[in-house]
Amino acid sequence: MVDALPLRIFLASPGGLEDERAAARACASEHGVRRDGVSNVTYEVIEWDRVRGTARRAQEAINELIAESHFMIVLFKSAWGSEPGSPWGYTSGTEALHGPA
Q1: Burial grade of 36 (CB within 10 A; 0-12, 13-18, 19 or more)
Q2: Once rounded to an integer, what is the mean pLDDT over residues 55-67?
Q3: What is the pTM of this model?
Q4: Where do the domains of the chain lie?
């Protein structure tokens, strides 16, 4: 069987959901173990912390990771997020990405 590149799953969530993020990573890993020998499809869970330091806005680098992913899992806690901008420049927040219609 030819090895295929892994399908990327971008996992997005706020802080405070460490257990839920660990469960999503474990699920992808377990699926790979169960399918070993049956399929060469593997999954790689990517999170925002894979973004390297950049002089540009961090959200732009995160958007690139999302664009390179095949799937996206978004976890929310008690709120949808905050505005990603402020009068003092960009801050952390949830921003809707709009693809082609």
Answers
A1: exposed
A2: 80
A3: 0.70
A4: 7-90
